[in-house]
């Protein structure tokens, strides 16, 4: 019984560590993309944006609103 509780605890701790690493990796990626000197975006096969750097988002919104 104690062994399974320890295993459960270790699994939860490992998941927390992995989630933290993933979040930091995503933050680093977003920082690189948002600070790029060129426009960075991803589209699907129908040319629908599913990732767009924030400065480019703002520029496109301003163009649409004009």
Question: What report would you give on this structure?
Answer:
By secondary structure, the chain is mainly alpha-helical. It folds into 2 domains: 1-35; 38-66, no CATH class. The chain has helices at residues 2-34, 54-65, and strands at 41-43, 49-52. It has a two-stranded antiparallel ribbon. The longest helix is centred in the first third of the chain and has 33 residues, at 2-34. The relative contact order is 0.08.
What is the H-and-E element order?
A: HEEH
What gap, in angstroms, lies between the N and C termini?
66 Å
Question: In which order are the strands of the major sheet placed?
Answer: 1-2
Structural class: mainly alpha
Fraction in beta strands: 5-15%
Average predicted local confidence, pLDDT: 90
Find the count of extended strands (DSSP E, 2+ residues): 2
Question: What's the overall geometry?
Answer: elongated
User: What share of the residues lie within helices?
Assistant: 55-70%
How many domain regions?
A: 2
Q: What characterizes the major β-sheet?
A: 2 strands, antiparallel
Given the structure, what is the number of helices? 2
What's the alpha carbon Rg, rounded to whole Å?
20 Å
Unreliable residue stretches: none
